[in-house]
Design brief:
Oligomer: single chain
Shape: elongated
Order of helices and strands: EHHHHHHHHEHHE
Number of helices: 10
Distance between the termini: 25 Å
Structural class: mainly alpha
Number of domains: 2
Length: 205
């Protein structure tokens, strides 16, 4: 999904987290369909489209694929082995900036570490090289902070050397969606001015 937001200089950032509501609204806009027309093609009610776009309903993959197909496009998924040696430091090496960050890979790493807490210490102990993008550097510091707390480990000392973002980093979407994202952001994220909901990276089990 394309980025939405201002530059770093603007001190308000938007995250390229793929939220279903934003995805559907952007898809519908690109193909020039009204909510009612898209719903009719997808075989659902207009209120379903409205609720998804407002962030009030989290559609299943099947529903999202049906809506995408109704817009004349195809929704695809892919998978890749994470590798036993993937750490936050190695992830940083694959991430030149926030616009090209692989959110799926980061979510996969977090899922792996939650399933294998004995790997957390090794995955977060080495300081990631600075990417040149403070959003990425802060996100990795916040993720390391939360992973350490969840695993009852001491916070890595390197995270204190990462300067906090001066402006809020938010996911794109309606004001209601942004407010909900901010309300569900982990405290480790909020301390770094990252107002992204926990569910973007920590998936429910």
């Amino acid at each position: 999904m394309a980025w939405a937001g201002t530059s770093l200089a603007g001190r308000i950032y938007a995250a390229s987290v793929v939220l279903p509501g934003e995805f559907v609204a952007q898809l519908r806009s690109e193909v020039g369909l009204s909510q009612r027309a898209l719903a009719r093609r997808a075989g659902c009610t207009r209120s379903t489209i409205v609720r998804i776009e407002a962030g009030e309903m989290d559609p299943t993959f099947t529903m999202l694929a049906r809506i995408t197909g109704a817009a004349g496009q195809r929704l695809t998924i892919s998978r890749a082995h994470l590798g036993d040696d993937l750490t936050l430091a190695s992830f940083a090496g694959l991430t030149p900036d926030a616009e090209r960050m692989d959110w799926t890979l980061l979510r996969g790493l977090i899922d792996l570490l939650r399933a294998h807490p004995e790997r957390v210490s090794a995955a977060i102990s080495d300081p990631p090289a600075r990417t040149g993008d403070l959003r990425v550097d802060n996100l990795l510091a916040a993720v390391a902070d939360k992973l350490a707390e969840d695993a009852f480990l001491a916070r890595p000392r390197w995270i204190d050397a990462v300067p906090r973002l001066e402006g809020a980093w938010r996911a794109p979407g309606t004001p209601r969606m942004k407010a909900r994202e901010a309300a569900t952001a982990p405290p480790q994220f909020v301390r770094r001015n990252i107002l992204l909901g926990k569910g973007n990276l920590w998936r429910e089990r």
